[in-house]
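Now for one record.
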Amino acid sequence: MLPVHRIVVPTPYPVGPVNAYLITARPYTLVDPGPDTEQAREVLREGVVRQGLQLEQIERVMLTHYHSDHSGLAQWVHELSGAPVYLHPYELPKLSGNYDFVSDRLPFVLEAGVPEEVIRLVTADRDRLPKPFVCGENVVTLLDGEELPFEGGSWQVLHLPGHAPGHLCFYDRQGGVLLSGDFLLPHITPNPMLEPDPENPLRRNPSLTQYLAGLERIKAMDIERVWPGHGESMADYRPVVAASQQHHRERCDELTGLLRQNGEMTAFQLSRRLYPDLKGFNNFLGLSEVQAHLDVLESRGRVRGQKKAGVVYYRTAGDA
């Protein structure tokens, strides 16, 4: 089993601290170093020193996905150590430094019927930290099934999208250990984010369909310990998988129930019914949750969407 050391790094986000992981087998590897804040830099450096190393000795930085609580310090660690940054190619454009989160998703937000004033609230409540940035010359891209060698073992790269199109997990088959990023968390269900399909930007990414397929994949694997992106490690992870699957079944049933009761509704109207108290950027997260479930329901023939004046209205498939 490869030596994995968790470093709990503070973030300014409601999700709380993020888990960075240091692997002290060569090449010395740091996974998800955390957000770009002075406090996070200090805690990360102290955590590495506790294991007898310096950040300048890191030889490889690996990212599970681009979200700033995980990726924000990747470029800083690279500048200190010269370590290349490893990630899935789908995540690289979002770490260019000029990626516009809102405009990238605006066509889908408008199609969901979100009013302009709500879009302004979401935009005004965006992340105040520096945009995550990784210089393309310092990047190594990873694909599903690749092997990452260490002294004394290796990790298999698992592409498990849903929370992000290029979300990666890292699997130590010999030790039965999975670094799950935000794919599997002990205390919350990851948000299936609304964003374009990297292979066809005019189409929504089928985030929840991908996520549910990934749950089936890891449920069949031989995993003895899961180290997540947030929270404590899990020995018995299958109940968490089952709870997540149950959550999504219940959410699908809840949405079809609302459509039966109310007739046709937009994704935004449904999100308001489910989450009436959301503020600021959380409006987008609520919309993402609803739209992802509507996409699954439509793919299964349980609901139908019809576009009227640029906005999609949904109804149950049995309704005329």
About this structure: The chain has a mean pLDDT of 95. The domain at 4-97+132-235 is CATH 3.60.15.10 (Metallo-beta-lactamase; Chain A). The CA atoms of residues 35 and 72 lie 4 Å apart.
